[in-house]
Write a structure and sequence with these properties.
With 431 residues, the protein is of the alpha/beta class. It folds into 3 domains: 10-101, 3-Layer(aba) Sandwich (Rossmann fold), CATH 3.40.50.11060; 196-361, Rossmann fold; 365-429, Alpha-Beta Plaits (2-Layer Sandwich). The protein is 40% helix and 20% strand. The strands form 3 sheets. A 7-stranded mixed sheet has the order 6-7-5-8-9-11-10, with helices on both faces. A 4-stranded parallel sheet has the order 2-1-3-4, with helices on both faces. Strand 1 (10-17), helix 1 and strand 2 (40-48) form a beta-alpha-beta unit. Helix 1 (27-36) runs parallel beside helix 4 (103-114), helix 4 (103-114) runs antiparallel to helix 5 (118-132) and helix 5 (118-132) runs antiparallel to helix 6 (159-194). Belongs to the TRAFAC class OBG-HflX-like GTPase superfamily. HflX GTPase family. GTPase that associates with the 50S ribosomal subunit and may have a role during protein synthesis or ribosome biogenesis. It is found in: Cytoplasm.
Amino acid sequence: MFDRYESGEQAILVHVDFPAESDREDLSELKLLVNSAGVETLAVVTASRSTPSSRFFVGSGKAEEIADAVQTLGAQVVIFNHALTPTQERNLEKLCQCRVLDRTGLILDIFAQRARTHEGKLQVELAQLRHIQTRLVRGWTHLERQKGGIGLRGPGETQLETDRRLLRGRIKTILARLEKVQKQREQGRRARQRAEIPTVALVGYTNAGKSTLFNRITEAGVYAADQLFATLDPTLRKLELADVGSIILADTVGFIRHLPHELVAAFKATLQETLEADLLLHVIDIADDRQADNIQQVTEVLNEIGAGDVPQLWVCNKIDAIDQGEPRIDYDDLGKPSRVWLSAQTGSGIDLLQDALVQRLRPQMVDVSLRLPPSMGKLRGRLYALNSVQQEQVYEDGQLGLAVRMSSVDWQRLCKQVAEDDGANLQGFVE
């Protein structure tokens, strides 16, 4: 059995072109992923096939070419831009005598490097354990079943069976911890819903500029870099908007084409912020040639997690990188903002984004004129506490005239409170 390297700093990349659109991957994106993982690319091996080979994924001749490149260049790992089966990984490792990593394993490795919070680390570990469950055999093929005899009798398990049992136990423990985290998040969401604070979640393809935009709006100081999956742990900040009040802005993990199902399942608690949001800010790298495909990939992931019906406002970011990129707001047929063109890096158009958010989130307002008797001073105090009194005057008979503006939700709540506390109908004081 070959030595198993802990990390691979120098890699051979393998990319296969398939005629079916659903099987295609992007070679330039693989290079970005490898760079984000901190790995040096020694060579790129490309091939074309109609279907993957069951033995090596590529043909036997191409597999020999990869093995020769590993020996010649001294590579420590071979990275495929595709998902490999455990058997294909095992066969390739035996042939190349080095680690073989597929696209899913590479993304999981990047996530492991990026995780900062306790929750993020748990989610990554869960995804990794689920991924390696079917791949344990390759690390223990040199071990026999434990021997019998005096002092040598074991529990009757191979090392592989022992590891699988330990894995199942660890996965169960992590799931229990993540369930606790999810309950805590749900409590926070319920509190925001009771206070009727709108939640806006940033979504988009990885490296579209979500964290830069988040920092520009909230001055949160979230880590942002020109690399894939710079953000892994969700960050929430409160923001004040005119005519709307407080909102919660959530920065979430970026999406990528063919996002591994292990990650979608593991990051369910994180993605719940997206699912429960009142509005999604879909951040798009407008300077990326693949923007149409990236938008489609994000839409597919949103549908997969059940957030496809959440209202969206597209944010066309990085207008500083295109010709004639001017900040503006595009409106749909109903007169609602549908797209905002801006640059999170330079700050150009950020004010337009805030205007668009106000227009999309501003609740239906109620404007009424009230005439209150002097005995309703408590109601006057409530109206001032809601910051809804626009104008006040005192009539000759001592009654108060108030011009009031508030959201329809606050108005309905106030009517109910007045009826319960004072037994009065607030509508009866409307002029």
